[in-house]
Specification:
The structure is a single chain. By secondary structure, the protein is an alpha/beta fold. It is built from 21 helices and 28 strands. The chain is about 35% helix and about 20% strand. Helix 2 crosses helix 3, helix 6 packs across helix 7 and helix 11 crosses helix 12. The N terminus is likely disordered.
C-alpha cells in the first residue's frame, strides 16, 4: 500500500501564518488538476527534470521537518510521530475518512506546529544565555527606553521609567539584607507599581508571593506564611487587613506603601515610599547569578474550596506563560493589550502583563473590571487585543448597547471562560473578529489554545499525530475524578465525544513539560497521576472534564466533582449554568447537586441572583423545559442576593451545596419543580413531604 503523494506545487501558496481560512482548497484543489507524474516518460527532458526536482524538494523538506522536530522534541518523539502516522493511516485502511480528517485538520496542525517550533527556538536562546526575566526586560529598555510599557489611569509609563522604579525596589531590599532565594509577599491593587515591585525583587533573585487582595484573616496569614516570607509589601489600602493578622506573622517585616503622600505609618510598619525616594536607580548586583530556571513568583490558585495553594513560577515558566499564548494565537509585538484582570493571577500578571515584560508591547491596566467601561476603555486607548476571564463576557452582554460596542479596533480577544451558550451572541454584538480561548492551570505543565477561531473550543489535540504535544484526555470516574485503568493497570485515552480529564505528560528534563507544582510538596503529589501510558511515567492531572470532537477540538465540560448523576444520567453543572443564566437575563447562577433521601444520585439545584425581585419563574420553567432534557432541569431553585466570586470571576458553590434545600437552614426563598412543570414555593410542609417520599421527582 502506498501513501498518496501531493505535488510540491500544491503547497507553494500555503502560508501557515494566515490561519486555517487561507488553506481552503489549497493542496487538494491543485492535486485534482495536476498531471500524473508517471506519465512524464517520453516527454521533454525539462519536464522530467522538473518532476525529479520536485521529488528532491519534497525529500529535503521532509528531512528538514524531521530534523527540526528531532532537534526540539528528541528522536523518540520523532519515531513515535512516524509510527503513529503510519498506524493511523493503516488503521483507517487508507480510506476516505482518514483523508477527510487530514484535509480538515492538517492546515491547523501545521500552523500550530510551526508556531510552537518558533516559540521553542526563541526560548532556546534565553535558556542558552541563562537569562532572567530582569535581563529579558533590560533588552527592551535598551532598545526602546522611551516607548510606552504600561498605561494606567491616563498615565503612561515608559520602559525606562519602569526600569528605574524596579531598580529602586531592588536597591532598597538589597540594603534590607534580602538575597537570592528569599521570599517576599506582595499585596497591592492593580497598578504598574505592582509589576515594578516583583520585577525589582527578581533582579536580586528574591521570589515574590503575589497575595490575593480579597484575602483576610486566616487565609491571608496562611498565604504569607506558607511562602516563608521574610517581608511583606502591601498597599496602604490594605492596612486594616494587615493589622488584623500582623501579630500572627512573627518576624515578617511590614513595608507599607502608598501612591499618595502621607506623614506617618503604623508603629510596626516601615514607610516604603520614603526608602524608595532616596534609592539608586541603577540595577544592583545580586548576591549570586539569577538564572532562567530560578524561582520568580509564587502565584496562588484561586480555587473555590480550601486555603490558597502557592504554585511555583520560575523565570522559565513565566516566559512560557507569556510566550506560548503569544505565538500560538498570533500576537504581535505591535499590539496594544487591555487587561482589567487581577495582576496577582496568572492570566493578568503573566499572560497579559508578560506581553510588555517579555515582548516589549504596551499593556493598558485597569484597576478593576467594569462591564460599562470595558469597550469604552478599549476605544479610548486604541487597544487591539482585549482580555477576559470567567463570567466577564456574560456581564458585558448584560449591559445596554453603546456605540463603543463596535467602534473599536480590536482584532482579537483572549481569555478563559467564554461559555459556548453565549459565544456567538457575544462575537456578533461586539464585532469580535477572533476569539482566542485558552485553557490551562497556573500550576500545570500544559496549556492549549483555540488558534483558528473555532466556536466554543478551548484548544485542540492533533488527530493525525496526537503525541506531538504531550497532552491527552483520559477516562475517569466522573464522581471522584480517579483515572480508570485497563487490565495492564494503565490509563485509557478517551474517544471522540467521550468526556475525560485533561492531563499533561511530565518530562522532568524538559523545562516546558516539568511539573513544578506547589510550595507544599504534599499538595503537589495530589496532582500527579502515575503509570499513565507506560509503567513509571507520570502526568499532571488537571481535574477538569473535557471532551474532544472528531476533528480533535476540545471543549470544557465541567470540573470533576461538580458533575452529578440524576435519573441515570450525568449532568454537567457548567452547561446547565450557561443555559439557566441565558434565561434569566445573564444573572449570576450556580448549579450543584443535592441529595434527596431514598433517591439515587443528586437532584439539580440552581442558586440565582435576583436582587430586584424581577425573576419570572413561569417563563424560566417553560424556557428550561425546551432547552434542557428532564434529568438536567434544576429540581430546586434558591433565590439569593449575591454569590461569592473568586478573584478570577468564578462563582463559588461549596457552601451553597452544603446547605442543600432545607428551609429551616436557608433563609432565602426556595422553590421546587412540581409535577405540573412549574416552580412552586418550597415551604417547611413541602420539605417534610419530600423527605417522607410523598412528593417524588
Amino acid at each position: 500500500m502506498s501513501v498518496p503523494q501531493i505535488p510540491a506545487e500544491s503547497f507553494q501558496s500555503c502560508d501557515v501564518e494566515k490561519g486555517i481560512e487561507d488553506y481552503k482548497g489549497c493542496g487538494v484543489k491543485k492535486l485534482n488538476n495536476c498531471e500524473d507524474i508517471n506519465s512524464s516518460a517520453g516527454k521533454p527532458v525539462r519536464h522530467v527534470l522538473t518532476v525529479v526536482l520536485k521529488r528532491v524538494a519534497l525529500v529535503v523538506l521532509a528531512a528538514l521537518v524531521i530534523s527540526t522536530l528531532w532537534y526540539f522534541l528528541g528522536w523518540m518523539i520523532v519515531i513515535e510521530i512516524i509510527i503513529v502516522a503510519i498506524v493511523a493511516f493503516l488503521a483507517a485502511g487508507g480510506g476516505y475518512k482518514w483523508l477527510i480528517v487530514l484535509y480538515k485538520t492538517l492546515p491547523r496542525d501545521l500552523t500550530a506546529l510551526q508556531r510552537y517550533l518558533r516559540f521553542l527556538w526563541s526560548v532556546r536562546n534565553l535558556k542558552k544565555k541563562d537569562m532572567s526575566i530582569g535581563e529579558v526586560f533590560a533588552q527592551h529598555v535598551e532598545k526602546r527606553p522611551n516607548d510606552i510599557c504600561f498605561i494606567f489611569e491616563d498615565k503612561e509609563w515608559t520602559f525606562a521609567q519602569v526600569d528605574e522604579f524596579s531598580n529602586r525596589v531592588a536597591n532598597v531590599f538589597k540594603a534590607q539584607g534580602l538575597k537570592n532565594g528569599d521570599a517576599v509577599a506582595l499585596m497591592m491593587d492593580n497598578r504598574p507599581e505592582f509589576l515594578c515591585f516583583w520585577l525589582g525583587l527578581s533582579k536580586l533573585g528574591v521570589v515574590t508571593a503575589l497575595i490575593n487582595t480579597n484575602l483576610r484573616q486566616s487565609s491571608l496569614a496562611h498565604s504569607i506564611s506558607v511562602a516563608s516570607s521574610k517581608a511583606f509589601i502591601y498597599s496602604s489600602l490594605y492596612s486594616e487587613a494587615v493589622n488584623e493578622v500582623s501579630s500572627s506573622l512573627g518576624s515578617v517585616r511590614l513595608f507599607n506603601w502608598s501612591s499618595k503622600p502621607r506623614s506617618s505609618v503604623g508603629a510596626n510598619e516601615i514607610n516604603l515610599e520614603v526608602l524608595l525616594k532616596d534609592a539608586a536607580t541603577t540595577v544592583p548586583s545580586p548576591s549570586t547569578k539569577v538564572g532562567f530556571n530560578d524561582k520568580l513568583l509564587y502565584i496562588y490558585t484561586s480555587g473555590t474550596t480550601g486555603l490558597p495553594k502557592a504554585a511555583v513560577i520560575t523565570h522559565c515558566r513565566y516566559v512560557f506563560l507569556a510566550g506560548a499564548i503569544h505565538y500560538q494565537v498570533g500576537f504581535s509585538c505591535k499590539d496594544r493589550y487591555y487587561t482589567p484582570l487581577p495582576l496577582y493571577h496568572t492570566a493578568g500578571g503573566a499572560m497579559a502583563a508578560g506581553q510588555a515584560v517579555v515582548y516589549g508591547s504596551t499593556v493598558v491596566i485597569r484597576s478593576k473590571f467594569s462591564a460599562s467601561n470595558y469597550f469604552a476603555d478599549i476605544v479610548k486607548y486604541n487597544c487591539t487585543v482585549g482580555q477576559y476571564i470567567g463570567e466577564m463576557c456574560r456581564y458585558l452582554l448584560s449591559t445596554p448597547p453603546r456605540p463603543e460596542d463596535k467602534s473599536h479596533n480590536l482584532r482579537m480577544i483572549f481569555g478563559n471562560g467564554l461559555r459556548p451558550q453565549i459565544w456567538r451572541e457575544f462575537v456578533e454584538r461586539f464585532n469580535i473578529p477572533k476569539v482566542a480561548e485558552f485553557y490551562g492551570a497556573t500550576e500545570g505543565n500544559a496549556n492549549i489554545a483555540n488558534i483558528d477561531n473555532k466556536e466554543g473550543a478551548i484548544g485542540f489535540v492533533s488527530r493525525l499525530v496526537p503525541s506531538i504535544y504531550p497532552i491527552s484526555i483520559i477516562r475517569v470516574d466522573q464522581k471522584t475524578g480517579e483515572p480508570l485503568r485497563n487490565e495492564q493497570g494503565l490509563c485509557m485515552v478517551c474517544k471522540p465525544d467521550e468526556p475525560g480529564v485533561f492531563i499533561g505528560k511530565i518530562i522532568p528534563t524538559n523545562p516546558a513539560r516539568a511539573f513544578l507544582g506547589y510550595v507544599n510538596e504534599k499538595e503537589s503529589k495530589k496532582k500527579i497521576v502515575h503509570d499513565v501510558f507506560t509503567k513509571g511515567d507520570s502526568a499532571f492531572l488537571s481535574g477538569d472534564l473535557l471532551v474532544m470532537d472528531e476533528w480533535g477540538y476540545l471543549y470544557f465540560k465541567d470540573r470533576t466533582g461538580d458533575t452529578f448523576r440524576w435519573k441515570g444520567e450525568n449532568v454537567s453543572t457548567s452547561e446547565v449554568e450557561g443555559i439557566v443564566s441565558n434565561h434569566v437575563n445573564y444573572k449570576d447562577c450556580v448549579v450543584y447537586g443535592v441529595e434527596i433521601p431514598n433517591c439515587e444520585g443528586r437532584a439539580g439545584m440552581a442558586a440565582i441572583v435576583d436582587e430586584h425581585k424581577e425573576l419570572d419563574l413561569a417563563a424560566l420553567a417553560q424556557g428550561l423545559m425546551k432547552a434542557l432534557p428532564a434529568y438536567a432541569r434544576p429540581v430546586f431553585l434558591r433565590i439569593v442576593e449575591t454569590v461569592e466570586l473568586t478573584g478570577t470571576y468564578k462563582l463559588k458553590k461549596l457552601d451553597l451545596q452544603k446547605e442543600g434545600f432545607d428551609p429551616e437552614v436557608i433563609k432565602d426563598q426556595l422553590f421546587y419543580l412540581s409535577s405540573n412543570g412549574v416552580y412552586e414555593l418550597l415551604t417547611l410542609e413541602v420539605y417534610k413531604k419530600i423527605l417522607e417520599g410523598v412528593i417524588r421527582f
